[in-house]
Design goal:
The chain is an alpha+beta fold. The chain has a single domain (4-116), classed as Hotdog Thioesterase (Thiol Ester Dehydrase, Chain A, Roll), CATH 3.10.129.10. 29% of the residues lie in helices and 33% in strands. It contains 4 helices and 4 strands. The protein has a 4-stranded antiparallel β-sheet, covered by helices on one side. The radius of gyration is 16 Å and the shape is elongated.
Length: 121
Amino acid sequence: MFTQEDVIGFAKVTGDNNPVHLDTVYASGTIFKKPIMHGMLGASIFSKVFGTLFPGNGTIYLSQSLHFIRPMYVNETYDAFFEVIEVDRDKHRARIATKILSIDSKETMNGEALIMHVEKI
């Protein structure tokens, strides 16, 4: 779960100070009606998984495509899903479908990652 403090911190690190993320009054006048998270902040969960959990430490994150389908909001629960699509053992690489669903199972984003791990793939 991400907080508004996470959004503020992400804005500071990236310089993306779009008021749709940071200003409640401004965001209330948009189609979203309230501040939305930066899409890349939501997608950062993929980096956590590939960097530490699957297939494990030492994984090299080579690429990621993303499609932002619905906005994500702070203080809401989301589930991330991963599906191995293809494995190239010679190159120690795997293509993985990535997806984030809201608590009511609506897709917020999807994409595809390419990772490499010399020992585990």
